[in-house]
Design goal:
151 residues; alpha+beta; 2 domains; four-stranded antiparallel β-sheet; two-stranded antiparallel sheet; 3 helices; 24% strand; disordered N terminus; binds zinc ion
């Protein structure tokens, strides 16, 4: 998987709401790195019209000692790649974080879980929901969830 050069800028942003917690690729060891904002403890999402949008991000790798504070959203978009990404027959399945991926899996398998992240299901790509492809996307999601757990 091309870790570098596959930054967040490659993700199409058709919306102005995003989570306050992201799972990114650690620049040092390529494991899962969590990016959080101060409001992560109280809210799962921030809109671009809210104060929370511009809060600084704190980065912490789940596998090595890499830490960084004070990162801006623009820096993350330019330098970081989402950790949960998988290519399925030429279409990229991606998720902001583990909870989001779990929610996507539920939707793909026909039983969307209740919860605050269900809000983001409205942004699911139509390509992911094509009936003949759902099973393949669901398998990819399960693989990613299982792989991350094994770390
Ligand atoms: Zn690391």
């Amino acid at each position: 998987m091309g870790v570098r050069g596959s930054g967040l800028t490659h993700i199409r942003y058709g919306h102005a709401t995003r989570p306050t917690e992201l799972s990114l690729v650690c620049p040092r060891c390529a494991a899962e790195m969590r990016a959080t904002q101060p409001s992560s403890t109280t809210r799962v999402s921030a809109g671009d019209c809210t104060a929370g949008w511009n809060e600084p991000w704190a980065l912490a790798c789940t596998a090595c000692t890499y830490r960084k504070r004070g990162a801006t959203w623009d820096e993350l978009r330019e330098t970081s790649a989402l950790f949960y990404r998988a290519d399925v027959a030429g279409v990229t399945l991606w998720a902001w974080n583990r909870a989001h991926l779990t929610m996507l899996l539920g939707v793909l398998e026909g039983h969307p879980p209740a919860g605050p992240l269900l809000y983001f299901s409205t942004y699911m790509r139509r390509q992911w929901l094509v009936r003949t492809r759902r099973a393949a996307f669901a398998r990819a999601a399960r693989r990613m969830l299982a792989g991350a757990r094994a770390r």
